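User: Structure please.
Assistant: Input sequence and predicted structure:
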Amino acid sequence: MSSIIQFVSDVFMSAISMLNSASAWMLFSFFVAGVIHEFVGPDRMQKSAIGSTKLSGLLWTTFTGMCLPICSCGTIPLGISMYYSGAYLGPVLTFMTSTPMINPIAIILAYGLLGKEIATIYVLTGFFAPLLIGLIANRFGGDELYYKPAYEKQEQPKIKLVFQKPPVWKRILKGIRWAFTELAVTISKYTVSGMLMAGVLFTVVPQSAISRYLGDPGMVSLLGITVVAALMYVCAVGHIPFIAALVASGAAPGVAVTFLMAGCATNIAELLTIRRTIGKRSMWLYSGLVILFSQIAGYITNRLLTDFVPVLDYDSVSKSISSANTLIIETPDWLQLGCSIILIGYACIALFRWLKKQLTEE
């Protein structure tokens, strides 16, 4: 009995730890998503570059994503809101790949800790891989290419009435109300359940064992690092020093690029949310392409840098870390825990609604 209690406790603590690192950014993303939903409706989105399969839309979302220092879970509300507002699947998946994978802070650290060769390949991968994923998603998106609301199936009225728009502040409040009453409940139930699933995996296979595996450069392969990174909750900024130490210990340089791409752009919570809110095709396209391109990028890196010598000069490292620290927005522990409690509360609301629906149907 005590072992079961200990197992449940370990799972809970592991899930809370991962949730704490993402919760504050997720709540901030809910706010931004609400504003997007209210001010950028389906009609306006369809007329924009990301409301089509145009290359310009993919370029815009790639550049935008590369400039935002938000983790993969933080991109979920923004990506889903863009999709429900009329954005095509390609730009949405491009945004959800480029945003967690690379950002200005990660670039600074990469050049200081990994060296200019790996860092340059990392930056190029962070630009071209999301772009290619978007192009393929637009081509093979099928019925999930763009969101089709219920009213599209109804006959459009012949006479369109013009209503006076409410003040901006009222529209902002309306968007925030939607984000924190509907979107937050939907996203949180998948995020929290995904974190719990990851907690189970990390408890069965503890991170200490993963670290031992990764710490042995002779055992590390591109495929192995991809599987491990996809299961871990990886932050580009937080894991660059770790992967730099691994490369300095003798791991192939391609391991760094593969690990940062596959780990930052995929996690269980994100894949579960994409499957439930957009569709299975989108989830398989997203996860499959991220894994494929991370393998290709790692292989090319190893072929190009056959004589690579790790660069861990103290002066350059300390300079890059100090420069990156000036850009990092840190949230206090109490705020992270408070945001995590809010997300768990939303997940409980979703569970209560589901149970109520099941009992009503019976």
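The two ends are 34 Å apart (CA to CA).
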